[in-house]
Design goal:
Chain A has helices at 8-19, 23-30, 35-43, 47-56, 59-68, 71-79, 83-92, 95-104, 107-116, 120-130, 137-140, 154-165, 189-194, 201-204, 218-227, 248-266, 279-306, 308-313, 315-319, 321-344, 352-382, 385-415, 426-448; strands spanning 146-149, 174-177, 183-187, 212-213, 232-236, 242-247. By secondary structure, chain A is mainly α. The first copy, chain A, has 3 domains: 8-135, Alpha Horseshoe (MgtE N-terminal fold); 146-256, CBS-domain; 279-448, SLC41 divalent cation transporters, integral membrane domain (Tetracycline Repressor, domain 2), CATH 1.10.357. In chain A, the strands form 2 sheets. In chain A, strands 1-2-3 form a 3-stranded mixed β-sheet.
């Protein structure tokens, strides 16, 4: 496969063809391009060009294109389409994708769009999905699945299955329900291929099937599916009725988004933004953390102000405040990152106490090594052993406390049910800056006997 | 589904049963436990208990358990097994998992283990896989797949397929090859279910199939599979011959590892470590970045030393060095994180120049807002407008430069083919600390006319 490459030339060519309205050429140029790639092209076009292209291309392709577009581009295009046209696109989509798109439409046209969907079963399924929280298994699942009753025989099952399979892009498992629609188990395609036509489903199905509750968090569903290597998982309601199915491709998106979110939080970016977002959006995501940092820095300045007299005498101590603050920040971020990641991957076992002891031993080991280096440097540079010793001993204390705060904070937040990822990045760096500087001056003062 | 929960009670119970050698109870207790959960239990046992359990349980279960264990636990258990026993486990595994385990065995027993595998076809496939780089599509793929020749008819194909499917856990697609084994296209199970028995494969197959080259990087494979929502992708060699297949569950692992790695790098952790690793392993991963930070701090101290005279007169400037350093670090980390993530997700389009201009405008906007706050604070606190102005103006300059460095560095590294993720975290904080402090003093000096 030659991978598709989005080039300026290609975008220009398409823009030219749109301007000169050469529909046949456009159609044949894009015919063999995957819908995900068409979406990448359209993301680069202006609103009118984008709308033109969506209206031109086949709706069984453009429906998939719509699901892959950037949210703002999709919003703009849908704003230029009639309710009937939008309904036509939704007709082609799986219920989960259709529900996601409806969820983004202005409230006043939702009713209209749904009433224009010709396939009433499809419309019903979409409406069912709308009532689930976006941030739950119900919000992820699709209604498309293949299910059979345990009272049927294999022949009836195959017949019914072929019919249902028409509407299901990928058949992973055939789910078996009883007459109350309660999920009982599953059949694999392989089993079905090898079973006798007259066998009862009751006698051949596998009475064990992983499933998730409709209220389960997406991250939990992701953990279950990736731990058990599942490609699809049925979703059941509170009394065990089969209500939908989640496939691994949606879970891959959840994992990516989750990872992106944690990464951004660690870097002090509080909303989901991308490099191509507007300066205003980027500022809104970044400024709050910077203001936090500013407050932290102002706090540090006030603390240092309290030691001003000492500094006139021991100016050298001043010179190392950025070093102390930086080390406190770095150690804090390292410790918290390991804990946050361990919590995300369910790797953290054992008590908080033993975890803290381990982290402080680790910090002590690192601290001693670093302090030895710093002692040597400062002694050689300034020739004053006692001051060098005071600075180095402070560094050890600061690193141990920074390790403690970095470990304790995410564990504490997690216990309280707060996402520990906020504890990495600016939050930990700022608090460690302040604590670090305070500890530094207090210990230095003690050692120097001021 | 009641999710499995690993508890101390369960581990204790199992340890007791192992000590009293109650094999029947152990077997029935673990019979219905998923292999991924059994692996979690065994990770908590000591070497002898773990080996006992692996030897006790059915090998079709323990082979899967082995693939899920922590690497050091698996190594210890395999060290207690004979070549014949190891070969017995490999016999039950898919070729990719078997090859991964063989790759971890000591060189001197590999030959012996392979010769003990009874299924010679399986052994041959495993040996084929051993020659691929772990960090490539070849290193990820399995040999298990269903392929048919384009010259066959549907009936022959179904017969052959049933036979092949015996060895394939999940059939996603049926790959179509010509007589030279060149990948031509695919058949979906659905198509096969609805095609006539006498049709030629040549006439019913889909002549378009995504594939990846055997030398492709795992991250690229992950991007392709998640972009195109694929659950499996065939792997071809340099001349297009079908050599293997990669499934989405392996890709989920790649995505998770990739995200973990970037996150750790941003936090200044240079190797793949987990919270439960030894203090020594954790130190090796963390100390190098801390030493870098120490050098940075020492550099900052030397720079500040050059301004020592100025400080005696304007001590207040000193008080804000931690604030300046922290802001430079935070802005740098934010900017670099957005670029690193954009590069990872292929979101970065356009020239480096326009990217830098945008980032500097953004930094300017943030800088002016933050400087206004700082001006107010310092003026009220110290009552000296000129000094407050000097500090605030410096802050703007520092933030703009920090944004520039944070944006430029990862873009530059990426152009040079170096993983830009190393540019986030300690690397950027440290260099921004130094530049920040230097700029701060120079500008403050200018404004105050010292």
């Amino acid at each position: 496969m030659t991978p598709f490459k989005l080039t300026d030339e290609l975008v220009n060519e398409i823009e030219q063809l749109i301007i000169s309205q050469e529909d046949t050429k456009l159609n044949s140029l894009l015919e063999d391009v995957h819908y995900a790639d068409v979406a990448e092209i359209i993301n680069e076009l202006n609103e009118n060009e984008a709308t033109y292209l969506i209206k031109l291309l086949d709706s069984d392709k453009t429906s998939d294109v719509l699901t892959e577009l950037n949210e703002d581009v999709r919003e703009a295009i849908l704003g230029n389409m009639s309710s009937k046209e939008i309904a036509g696109e939704l007709e082609e989509l799986d219920t989960d994708d259709a529900a996601d798109i409806i969820g983004e439409l202005p409230q006043e046209i939702v009713q209209q769009v749904i009433s224009e969907i010709e396939d009433r079963e499809h419309a019903k399924d979409i409406v069912d999905l709308l009532r689930y929280d976006e941030n739950s298994a119900g919000g992820l699942m699709a209604k498309e699945l293949v299910k059979v009753h345990d009272s049927w025989n294999v022949l009836a099952c195959v017949k019914e299955m072929r019919e249902q399979a028409e509407n299901v892009t990928r058949v992973h498992s055939i789910y078996v329900v009883n007459d109350d629609d309660i999920l009982m188990g599953r059949l694999s395609l392989k089993d079905l291929l090898t079973a006798k036509n007259t066998s009862k489903i009751k006698d051949v199905y596998i009475p064990k099937v992983d499933s998730v509750n409709v209220n389960e968090k997406p991250e939990e569903v992701a953990k279950i599916m990736s731990k058990y290597d599942l490609e699809a998982i049925p979703v059941v309601d509170e009394i065990g009725r089969l209500v939908g199915r989640i496939t691994i491709d949606d879970i891959v998106d959840v994992i990516r988004e989750e990872a992106d979110k944690d990464y951004q939080m660690a870097a002090g970016i509080s909303q989901d933004v991308e490099a191509d977002d507007s300066i205003w959006e980027l500022t809104r995501a970044r400024l709050p953390w910077l203001i936090l940092g500013l407050f932290g820095g102002a706090g540090a300045a006030v603390i240092m102000g309290g030691f001003e007299e000492m500094f006139r005498q021991y100016t050298i101590l001043f010179l190392f405040t950025p070093l102390i603050a930086a080390m406190a920040g770095n150690v804090g971020v390292q410790s918290s990152a390991i804990i946050v990641q361990g919590l995300a991957n369910d790797d953290i076992k054992g008590s908080i106490g033993s975890r803290l002891v381990k982290e402080m031993l680790l910090a002590l080991l690192n601290g001693v090594i670093l302090a030895a280096l710093l002692l040597l440097f400062t002694w050689v540079w300034k020739g004053d052993f006692l001051t060098a010793l005071a600075i180095s001993l402070s560094l050890i204390a600061v690193i141990v406390v920074a390790g403690f705060i970095g470990t304790f904070t995410p564990l504490f937040l997690h216990k309280r049910g707060i996402d520990p990822a906020i504890a990495t990045g600016p939050f930990i760096t700022t608090s460690n800056d302040i604590f670090g500087i305070l500890i530094y001056f207090m210990i230095a003062k003690m050692v120097l006997g001021i």
